[in-house]
Amino acid sequence: MSCEMQIDKEKERSVGGSNPLEQFVILAKSARGAAAVELVKQVLEAPGVHVFAELLDTDSIKELANGPHSVYYELLRIFAYGTYREYMQLKDRLPEITPGMKKKLQHLTIVSLATKMKCIPYSVLLQELDMKNVRDLEDLIIEAIYSDIIHGKLDQRNSQLELDYAIGRDVQPGDLAKISATLQAWCDACEAVLVCVESQIVKANAEKNKSLKHKESIEQEVANIKKTLKSQTQDSDEAMNTDMREQSGHGSHQTDKSKKGFRVKNLRSGSAKFWQKS
After folding, report:
1. Could you give the strand order of the β-sheet that contains 150-155, starting from the edge strand earlier in sequence?
2. CA distance 272 to 261
3. pTM
4. What is the pLDDT of residues 164-179, one digit of tens each?
């Protein structure tokens, strides 16, 4: 039985998980020599597999680095950390890749470029991907978008690829210090922003308390003014009522006197008339 058929049978028996690389890592534990080489070929061809560091760490794959199949180990390293341009530079001493492998490595190259720039000019892509035709380049990018390798859009007017998202690639051990420094700088920036936000919160709360006290002061002053106006209104009403009563009483007294005078006058007039008749 050939190595390829054996790997296919073992792959069918293996328990697949959500990680498409997992089944290859399981198979690598028992694969040696030619079987490990065949496993490398299949993983580089397999759709949906874009990270390879876990496979590189298995003992059977590490053994390839120092044996007659070292070129396959180097090829796997380029797919894990390198670009299509690097492959072309080492093409003469590396195994020839299939069209499927070529397309995958070109997609991974776009991902690597996405970590350096969010708008990648077509000229850069054509150079890095060793392509001459813009139409072929756009077809390759569209395939990467539909495969969820990258998210973005083609800006044909400005001849560039605008990126919103790209999958992650394997991280080389030598890059860990740089990543750690970047994350620390990000944490420091977050701390600075947090301190600034807390300061603004304290300031905002102080302004709020000041405004509330000012509002309470104004409301108290308004209440006092209303109380004073009410008191003044009551005093004015009482004074007006007193004046009206006094005026009413004075008028009644004069009316009585007029009535009495009128009666006396009438009596006198009557008496005069009476004596005249006699």
Report:
1. 119-121, 160-166, 150-155
2. 17
3. 0.64
4. 999 999 988 777 788 7
